[in-house]
Each structure stands twice: as structure tokens, then as C-alpha cells.
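forwarding from the other thread:

> can someone predict this with acetoacetyl-coenzyme A?

sure thing
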Amino acid sequence: GNLPIGIHDLSLATTQYVLMYEALAAQNGTSVAKYHWGIGQRSMSVPAADEDIVTMAAQAAAPVVARHGADRIRTVVFATETSVDQSKAAGIYVHSLLGLPSAARVVELKQACYSGTAALQFAIGLVHRDPSQQVLVIASDVSRYELGTAGEATQGAAAVAMLVGADPALVRIEEQSGMFTADIMDFWRPNYLTTALVDGRESISAYLQAVEGAWKDYTERGGRALDEFSAFCYHQPFTKMAYKAHRQLLQHCGHAAAEAEITRAIGHTTAYNAEIGNSYTASMYVGLAALLDHADDLTGQAIGFLSYGSGSVAEFFAGTVVPGYRAQLRSEAHREAIGRRKEIDYAKYRELHEWSFPADGGEHPVPRETAGPYRLAGLFGHKRVYAAR
Ligand code: CAA
């Protein structure tokens, strides 16, 4: 159809705390240059004990609801791979915290880091069916690996909230998509573990293979040519991965992969992820926020998106930036969310990493730590209780 549908508003939130790589490097004897240059990261967001995917999601979505109202929101789709319950959708807590209308559906989606994109595509389908409605898409994750593993350096946490509707004010999402699925154990988390398992090298090559697969399907379906795009947003488990992925795509297409060209295509998309770390489902959309907030005027230009979720599913799609988008951006709030995090030392990071609720059904209030607008007040009789500050 000709109805433009896409991202009408975009807002991100992250955590109370930040761990600098100097602290991790001093602990494990690694050269900090490996983190800064080898994986392209400056710091990692760390949630306080009273923060989780729900509090970050509510914090990201609140300004969106404040700006546009909730009257037209008929659906909330919450994408995450670090869910807090096996049954109840985390989005229902957010629905409650934000006072969204009861005449709405709320659901949670999972497929590793890919499900934020599934949520966006499902939202577009719903708006296509009824263009008067808006869909609140939330992607929120806390990336956690076991202490002392290679994955530990690629942790992080953030949430992105997007309002999806007709005649979007930011980015119109185009219809063609390229998809790729392969059954592979590159990264996964069994139900009995709180940290992810990963085969690091395997995960990088699986990602690169998925880039080629999704792009191949995209071009076979009549998508745009590579040189029509002015920028590319990749899933960023660490920002160097976006460079590897774009280099792979250029080579696959027979282009010379000049480093300056790669930096021009993806440099701006890494600005926030380098500070936040891996935010799984949110990561690619944190990249989009950074691009829109930092690039010179992108009006009318095409952006390529490559969403990857281990296991694995990938999708390549395109968006075009809408005239007037700059007046809608939340650049200052985004910089503030990242800038106000409090630096913690290794001991505090470790204490937070090792902490978990006892599974005894008792009363477990959580001391107030976050300066954010929403907090996890505790676990009482196996029930999570959230509160607005
Ligand atoms: N100075 C500069 N660079 C250095 C350095 C130094 N002193 N020491 C090492 N490096 C470089 C290395 O050369 C390497 O660069 P290249 O990849 O370009 O060769 C880079 O730093 C990393 O070094 P290693 O490969 O030795 O690092 P590692 O064994 O510690 O593993 C990792 C790195 C695989 C990313 C690991 O952190 C990990 O397993 N992370 C989790 C998995 C992951 O993020 N995978 C990404 C794809 S899967 C995905 O995208 C889904 C998802 O979200 C998880």
C-alpha cells in the first residue's frame, strides 16, 4: 500500500550505574586497549538492584506517552530476551505504570536480539489494518554473562520505546524485507541459567553469514541497491561488530571496503552503544537514535537496518527519514540519560552481578537506589511490585 507507516517517536533509557573498562581491565589483567579499540567500547551500563527491563522500558516510554497521549495506543509489544517472568508479559507492568488504556492488547516477543524488529514489523502490520491506531513498541534488555568469561566485556543494558503509526514523524519503514533463519547454537540461555552462554567466534561468523543471507533475500525481493543508502544501522553487541558486518556486506557486493567509507556509513550509529554496551533487542534502535541525533540533516535519505538475533534470525530492511524529523528528536534527553549514570567500582559491579532474589516466596523489598522515575520495589510472595518515584 501507499500509506506511509513507521516510527513516529523514539526514546531511550538506560541504567543508574556505569562500569568503566579501566575497572574491568584492572581486575582481569586485560589491556584496556582491547576494550577501547579491539571491541570498540568505552563503558557498560549496569542496572541498580531496583532497576530491570520493566523500569527501563517505562522510563523510555513515559516521554513518548506524555508527548502523544495514549488514546490511540491499542497495542503494546514488548521485545526482550531477558524476561522477568515465564508467563506474564513485562509490558503489562509498563501498561500499568504509564496508565495506558485498558482497551489495549499487550504481548511479549522473544527471538534473542532480533525480536525488537519482529515487534516493529508486527506493529506496522497492525497499523496497516487500522491506520487510526498507534502501537507502542518497546525493546528492553539487560545483557549478562558469567563473571570472568570473554562475554563479560560485552554486557550492558538499555530500553528503547517507539511509537509506530501512519504518517510517521521520524522514519518511514519500507515494505521490502530480507529474511534469514538458521538453526545454530552461537548464543543461548537455558531456562535454568541467569547468564547467557555463547561461543564467541561462532557467534561472530554466524552474524556475518546472516548479514549475507538477509541481504541476498532483500535484493532478490527488489530492494534498494547498496549505494542508495546513506547510513546503516546494525545490531551492535559491541560497536566493532558493526564495522565487521558492514565490511562483510561491502565485500559480498563486490565493493572495495575502504575504512573511511565504512566509518561514514555507520560511525554515528555507534555513539550511544559504545557507552551503553550490548542492549540486545534495543541495540539496533539505540543505534538509530544515535544516528538521528548526531548526523547532519538526513531528510529524505535511506537508512539500511540489519537486525540479528542469535540462534539465529536476521532481517534487512530500509527506512527513509521524514522531513521535519529534527524537531521531534530527543537528543538532549538521550545524552542526559547516558551522562547522568554514576560510575561504580568493580566491587559494587560484582555485588550487583551476583545479587538475585531468594526463590522462597518471602517478602523481599529492594532498597531505593535508582534516580529514575520508576523502580522495582521488591518481590513479595513471588510477585514483583513496581512503583513510580
Ligand atoms: N589492543 C587492540 N585490540 C586488541 C587488543 C589490544 N591490546 N587485544 C585484542 N584486541 C582485539 C583483537 O584483535 C580482536 O579484534 P578482531 O576481532 O578484529 O580480530 C578484538 O580485540 C577482540 O579480541 P578477542 O577476539 O581475543 O576477544 P575475546 O576472545 O575476549 O572475545 C568476543 C571477544 C567474542 C566479542 C566476546 O566478548 C564474546 O563472546 N562476547 C559475547 C558474544 C557476542 O557479542 N557476539 C557477537 C555476535 S552474536 C550477536 O550479535 C548477538 C548478541 O547480541 C550476543
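The chain has twelve helices and 17 strands. thats all i got for now
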